[in-house]
Amino acid sequence: MNAAPQEAPPERERVLDVRGLTIGWGDRVLHHDLTFHVDRGEVFAILGRSGSGKSTLLRFLIGLERPIAGDVDIAGQGPVDLTTGLPPFGVMFQAGALFGSMTVGENVELPLAEWTDLPPKAAAAIARTKLALVGLEGAFETLPSELSGGMVRRAALARALALDPELLFLDEPSAGLDPITAKEIDDLIRTLNESLGLTCIVVTHELESIFAIADRCIVLDDRGGGIVAEGDPRALRESTDPRVREFFTRGGRG
Amino acid sequence: MTAAAAPHTAGASQRASCDPAASFTIERAEGGVRLSGTFRTTDAARAWDELHAAFAGAGPGELALDLSGVERIDGGVIALIVAARDELAALGVNARIVSTPEHVRPLFELYGGLEEASVRAPRPALGPIEAIGDVAVRWAAATRVAVIFLAEVASAFVSLLRRPRSAHLKEVPWLVQRAGFDALPIVSLISFLVGFVMGYQSARQLERFGANVYVADLVGISITRELAPLMTAIIVAGRSGAAFAAEISTMKVSDEVDALRVMGLRPIAWLVVPRLLALVLVLPILVLVSDVIGIAGGLVVAVMSLDVSASAYLLETRRGLVPWDVGQGLVKSVPFGLAIALIACQQGFAASGGAESVGRRTTTTVVTCLFALVLLDAAFTFTFRMLGL
Prior knowledge:
The structure holds two protein chains of two kinds.
Chain A: E1 14-25, E2 28-39, E3 43-48, H1 54-61, E4 69-74, E5 90-92, H2 104-115, H3 120-133, H4 149-160, E6 167-171, H5 179-196, E7 199-204, H6 207-213, E8 216-220, E9 227-231, H7 233-236, H8 242-250
Parallel strand pairs in A: 3-7, 3-8, 5-6, 6-7
Antiparallel strand pairs in A: 1-2, 1-4, 8-9
Helix pairs in contact in A: 2-3, 2-4, 3-4, 5-6
Chain B: E1 24-29, E2 32-39, H1 44-55, E3 61-73, H2 75-90, E4 93-98, H3 105-110, H4 128-162, H5 171-179, H6 184-208, H7 215-253, H8 256-262, H9 267-305, H10 310-320, H11 323-350, H12 355-386
Parallel strand pairs in B: 2-3, 3-4
Antiparallel strand pairs in B: 1-2
Helix pairs in contact in B: 1-2, 4-9, 5-9, 6-7, 6-9, 7-9, 7-10, 7-11, 7-12, 9-10, 9-11, 11-12
């Protein structure tokens, strides 16, 4: 750095900035003092064994739970407050969380109907396009209970993308799917990331999908020790830290 | 690995306790207890009894569990031996498992039989005073949750005034149909029967005084003032209250409520406000229907077995009833509807976990609703009386 005036690498815009975040409820602290950030356009993975609190961390990031301490800053707008309007991101829940009383099409239309003044016909047109984007053209009139596991994830992805967020949170997008379907979902995430410039934050323990999609990742300790590693998953595979090494060589299934 | 020790393959028929290969002995030996033979899980009950018989009277000190004679042993029996050892340890007997044959060693290791006995301290039972305190703390927590819920509902109504779209008002007509229209057959049937039974029971008494025609007053007043609002509310609590609680708690446990939140929608406004409006709209109408049909039930009795003509019955009903009799029932039905919707939705939102929680919340909803309805009804009757209405 003391060399001749070199061109500084372009400062990448931070989409998510987490500083000193302590998560848990009351006296039960799950992780203490977490600090990490996600740049625009990245696919960022939050890794850890079962029970390491990665899905819980996601709930704190998206504002479903109130942190004990620390800040979560999304898109430079400060901490998320879900009660004040449309949050600047989409979320795909682990089991899809599609509204069971509505058709798949209505599920995707819902955010559009609530947050835009589009006439119903236009909202339906957008919903159809989003469903086509995830490969569910024919499922508009289907009820979520009639879909297979992989289709539920696709529909949930379409709903999360309904309002074209720039940031997408995905909780275990391919967990419990067969390897082929899981790979299709991974490919879909990668495609959306590359073609739409969508920043994705993925909670997962599937090694296959980590190496397939993640640019960068953090690994959470399963005994509340915070972040044990951060960086490119392909580089972390060579880590000397036994906890990290074990995760990447034996898989996250705990 | 244990199969190597027992030459025959274990078929289902051979697992029966009469199987000679599955015989074992548990006997006292010097310094402890000796186990030998073949131990199958199907004989585990006998093994458990005999182990305890062998341990009876063991005083503090060392005790060896000699397994050298074990030919074959199932995991279930190993678990029992380990459990018995831990029981002894709790009594101060240091029982050690010794001479485990090589071929069953891995199984014992798996079941924790080779480790030191672990003594689990029994959880102290709550004393009476602690138990009372425990109940009080739970009640305080539940009350707090309910008060917060009420405050959120109130704030949802305020924001509804500012931004009507924040509530899912589109859902109201559908809910009205489900809670109201679909309930008409059962409300009608029950009202008719209640009117009929009331008329029939009172007829015997009134007949003795030749006051047959007053059955109209009796049925009319009790139906409109008390029975119609209460019966209708109970039916609605059982139908719609239970349905709302089950629906919302299922949404809660499958993350659908969280999905609403991350779309920037307020679940309370979205789910509770339409249900509340629907029940408040529906209950008075159902009560009116119930009034009419209940009186009709009394009329049928009067005509059939009291020699009162239909026109005389209706005339007497009109003479005996004042508008406030009907009005009182209608006034009560509004808070009844509010109570049912609030209890059901609050229970729904309190769900967490899985399917078991949905069932529990639904049950609690119906029971709490019945309790609240009877309590409210008593309070109204008392208040109206005090006000001289």
